[in-house]
Amino acid sequence: MEQYNNITLDMGGGGAKSAEIIKEIRKILGSTGKWKNTGDDGAVFPLNKDAMNRVSTEWDKLVFTTDSFIVDPIFFPGGDIGKIAICGTINDLAVMGARPIGIGLSLVIEEGFPMDDFKKIMKSIGKISKTTGVPIVTGDTKVTEKGKIDKIEITTSGVGLAQNIISNGGAKVGDYIISSGDLGEHAVALLASRFNYKTKIKSDCKPLNKELEKVGKFLNACKDPTRGGLAANLNEIADKSKIKIIVDEKNLPYKKEVVAVTELLGLDKFSLASEGRFIASVSPENIKKVLTILKKFNSEAKIIGRVEPSSAKAMAGKGVYVKTELGALRKIEAPKGKLIPRIC
Fold first, then answer.
1. For residue 307, with 0-12 CB atoms within 10 Å meaning exposed, 13-18 middle and 19 or more buried, which class applies?
2. How far from the centroid of its chain's Cα atoms is residue 79's Cα?
3. For a tag on the chain, would you pick the N or C end, based on fewer CB atoms within 10 A?
4. Helices 185-195 and 256-265 sit at what angle, rounded to 10 degrees?
């Protein structure tokens, strides 16, 4: 890691600098003990099966995750900061192959925050909790002096149980890369609200646990493209799996309106955040059944690429590439520099 005197915005954006600071944190904090998969979306603790007899010895892996949310604006088309918070934590558990069983909710609220807005946010959280069957089981609330924070910050932690863990590093040569739906709509919905653009795009924010309960056992790798978007997701999978991913330009999962807004703002569509989508690696023998199931949840689910062999003599080595309509390969790098702040 380069030497810095101060924390910079790009260190929290989900790109290359985020990966660097997380590596530095892990180095300082040291051993994770018996916890496994600590570089994935959640950490896994193997439970003593004797202790699980009252439930089921099959669900013998505890998955734990935590995330913080600072969003601007806190209300936007398709959701609010509360909906993102609970969906984000449920989804981080689900993409690991876990069934969420409980959420911890921590709030830091600015003095003077409108009570009506606070109740709207709590109702959003309660609605998702009820529809998914994942209860809020513990939490903490603090109020700070006016001006010390910007309105409200939410931290959610979640626990789940899993039979089989889906690791970010499980992609294999020959796998198909799929998207569970079109991407980037969350980022565009927030940006449109922030800059007062007129658009029909709404945030894609939603819980993914029901979809992933149906297809999780068929996935070799899985990620939800939040901060850093598709570029961060695929580069992480490619790096951990030590493989090459090629996505097809003709099948990129972005609506025309999403592309238009990003071009207007000079942003990279591959780095746009989604809050209700996942990217996965699926073997050829399972691809048909996975897509059939996913299309019942979202008709936009589709194949966007393939895991290809890589070698020193290959046209492109390990990493992520987009195949253009002219047949050329262009590398997709992990996001670098200042990304969109306060998007999730």
1. buried
2. 16
3. N
4. 50
Give me the count of residues in the chain: 344
**Which residue intervals of the chain bear CATH 3.90.650.10?**
176-331
Local structure of 114: helix, strand or coil: coil
**Closest residue by Cα to residue 318 from 260, 257, 241:** 241
Question: How would DSSP label each residue in 20-50?
Answer: HHHHHHHHHH---TT-B-TTSSSEEEEPPGG
- How far lies 39's CA from each of 14, 20, 26, 218, 236, in Å? 14, 12, 9, 22, 10
Q: How far is CA 321 from the centre of its chain?
A: 20
pLDDT (tens digit, 9 = 90+) per residue, 57-70?
Answer: 578 899 999 999 99
Q: Which of 285, 127, 298, 140 is nearest to 204 (CA)?
A: 298
Closest CA to 320 of 309, 335, 330: 330
Amino acid at 239: D
The whole-angstrom separation of Cα 245 and Cα 224 is 17
Say how far apart CA 225 and CA 273 lie, in whole Å. Answer: 6
> What tens digit of pLDDT does each residue of 70-109 get?
998 999 999 999 999 999 999 999 999 999 999 999 999 9
pTM of the model: 0.85
Q: What are phi and psi of 307, to 5 degrees?
A: -90, 120
Average pLDDT of span 273-289:
97
Whole-angstrom distance, CA of residue 309 vs CA of residue 190: 38
Q: How many Å apart are CA 167 and CA 274, to the nearest integer?
A: 20
Classify domain 176-331 at the CATH topology level: Phosphoribosyl-aminoimidazole Synthetase; Chain A, domain 2 (3.90.650)
* 3-state DSSP assignment of residue 59: coil
**Which residues are paired to 43 by β-bridges?**
64
